UniProtKB/TrEMBL annotation:
Pfam families: DJ-1_PfpI. InterPro entries: Class_I_gatase-like, DJ-1/PfpI, INH-QAR. It comes from the Bacteria. It comes from Chryseobacterium sediminis. Gene3D superfamilies: 3.40.50.880. SUPFAM superfamilies: Class I glutamine amidotransferase-like. Residues 11-184 form the DJ-1/PfpI domain. This is Transcriptional regulator GlxA family with amidase domain.
Amino acid sequence: MKHEQKSKTMNVAFLVYDQVEVLDLNGPLDVFVKANVIQPDSYYCFTVGKTKEAIYTEANTMALIPTYDLQTCPKPDMIVIPGANPDQIMKYSKDENFRETVLKWIKNNYNTGTVVFTVCTGSMLLSGTDILTGHDITTHSMLLDVLEQHNPEAHVIRNVRYIDQEQLITTAGITAGIDAALYLIGKQLGQETADTIVKLFEYQNSKADVSV
């Protein structure tokens, strides 16, 4: 059956913050960008930061200026939350200002129907927001025990690349974000589009997942 393109462009917000892991961010972002080349106007992809000030990626190798800040960005249909070094993640999870601005923005959008897609340790950022409550979730293999300790009300799944819980998607480490993004493109735009992106990437992806 031929896939019919959605009539509505989906707003996809990619969260950026200081010390964000570059491939966590750019892997899924490039998947959505390529999907837009194949099926124009399917997605409006943009970065959003706490402010419009430049942030530095992991190891301060690159400065990024967000497209929008939390106050000016369009209403997102999906928020992609890349991870960072675990020490950095734990620092943010204890930062009251970060929780009351960035995490509150994510939670408010989630409560109004926005899909949340975390990559790698990005799921740890959501600990304490109630977004993970009652869901099957995952993260980088080296942080699974910590994720479980901080989220006893969630069900941590091991040995999977990504988990689709409809409004919440979580992934394993780093490159799993690419796999999950490809999966979502297949789900939303058709498998032919996802397969074309795999060919463009020359990428050997894993299709192991848990879908509930």
